Every structure is written in C-alpha cells, then in structure tokens.
Amino acid sequence: MPSLQSWEQQVSAEYLSFNSSVVFLRDHHYPPGGLNTSNYVNSSYGQAQMTEAVELWYPVPDKADPLANFSAWCWATQIFQADLYKSEIQFYRRGSGLPERQLGSLYWQLEDIWVAPTWAGIEYDGRWKVLHYTAADIYSHVIIAPYYNVTTGLLEAWVTSDLWSAVQGTATFDWLDWSGAQLDVDTPTQVEFEVGAINSTRVLSTNVTNLLKGQDPTDVVLRMQVSASGRLPNSEMKMTLRHENWFHASPLNTAQLQDPGLKLQYSNDTESFNVTATTGVAAWVWLDYPGGAVVSFDSNGFWLAPGEGRMIGYRVKSDDTDGGWVDEVTAMSMWNQTLR
How far, in Å, CA of 231 to CA of 164, rounded? Predict the structure, then answer.
C-alpha cells in the first residue's frame, strides 16, 4: 500500500480507510479481467493477502483515530513487503557460495503508475516506500544475514560479497533482550572471516532451540555486524565496508516490544536528522514526513539498539512547503503499531 500522503492526493477523505470501496477497487491483484469497474471479488483476494500477512507477522494496528489507523495499516503492509523482499534477496545472494552459484537477482518493481496497492518500491509522486530503502541496504556490496529453519531450529549467519576480489573482516554477534540488556548466550562474539570473489562464507551455525533454553524467545534478538576490507571493481584502493542485520527469535506480533524512546533532532548546520533509541531496541525505525514534499533519506527502515543514534541526510526532489516539511518529520518504530 502507498502511504497516507499519497492516498490523500487522489482519494477523497471519506474513502481513506483500508477496505473502502475506492481503495478496494484500486487493488488489481488480481486484475479485474475486463471492463468491470466494480469487481470486488478479485480485489478482495489482494486485500485479504495483505491483511493476513500483517496479522501473521506484526502487531495489528488498532488505533482510535481512523486516519491514523489507515496510515498504520499502509505502513504495516510496506514493512511486510520490505521484509519479504529482503529475505528473498539475501537468500539468493547467499547462493553465490553454494552449489547453485547464484550470481544475481532482480525484483519487481521500481515505481508506481498510479496511487494503488502495487509491488512498487517508489510511490507515484516519487516518495520511497520501505522497500526501496531496504533493497538499497540488502544489495550492499558486503552483507551479513541470518538464515533460520523454524522446523529444525538451525540458525546460520553468512557473509556475502559481490566484489570481484576477496574481502577479509570480522563478524560481531550481540544477543539482547528488547530492553537492550545483554544476554548470556553461548555463541562467539566475534568471528574472523574471508569471503572469495562474488561468494559467501558461513560465520555462525547454531541450534536456537537448544541455545535459548532458559530464555524466553519472545524477548530475544540478535544483532549481527560485519566490518570488511575490500576493493571495489576496477579500483586498487582498499576501503572498509560495514553492514548490520538483526534476527528476532519470535515474530514481531508476539515479541515483547518495548518503547525504544526514540528522540529526533534536526541540525541546520549539517542539514541532517539524528534519531536515537534511548530505552529499548527499536525495530524498523521510520522517519516520516508530511505531504507537499518528496524527499529521500540516506537511510530509513533500520534498527537501533538503546543508546545508539544515526545521522541521516536527505535529498529533496520537490518541495511545496518552502522547507516547512523539515519541522514536521517524525520518527516511529514497530512499537508505535502497538499503540492506540
């Protein structure tokens, strides 16, 4: 689903709800199949799939304000889309070091042709969905990612590189509860590694079922970080490449999410935002901004541990607010989806 800000550009206020007739009929998954402009049956399949996805994995929005609830549902579907694509992309990329020797992937699609529920990562006016930020992150040259078999309990972490020469570095693992407190979990805290050209290397293999005995899986997260030294194609200059990923031992709809106490500041000197988590782990931190402008941030849709902050620059595509949009930027996380 596109954002509330996009819907407001083309849909009357009385239709700004998840299952309104206008929103419903703009869902062409599945297509109407002809000139029937009121094929609610086909539209219902796509709406149901999005609803089921949110209910299966995330806190279900139930806000008292109808407009805020619609916005929360739109964002929840974007999180699912980004989560799904991220899982698939990192899975395919890992295959560069497996027998299938997977050497690339493409995803559908880039941008919208109208305001409607679609696969696009960029909305009709150019506003970025969560997917576009997530795709930029998970297609980084060097990534670390978790791979979890819920049936067997097997959890692995792999480092993947698409560079044309080998990279060396360190993978770091921190087990936390949702308040950010360190957990005593018996896995290495650091692993040295080398990844060959366009390849993958496993840096962690453990059984979560056995590993987390005595722990409540709804209150466990694993932060993985990687720092690697390598060279970009056609360059002799070595550079440091970093990436971070998170694993949560239970779906976010059953996780013991805590208020991360997000603090947001803006600096006129650097023309950047700084968002900090102060009281807990923040999942899917999202900087939102009002209508009237189209802006892309340097990063968005990320995680933060308590006490950590991130400075975020931006680029302005269009602005009818005379710069006023800056004062209306807000920071939220998955925690906000639990609030009324």
Answer: 8
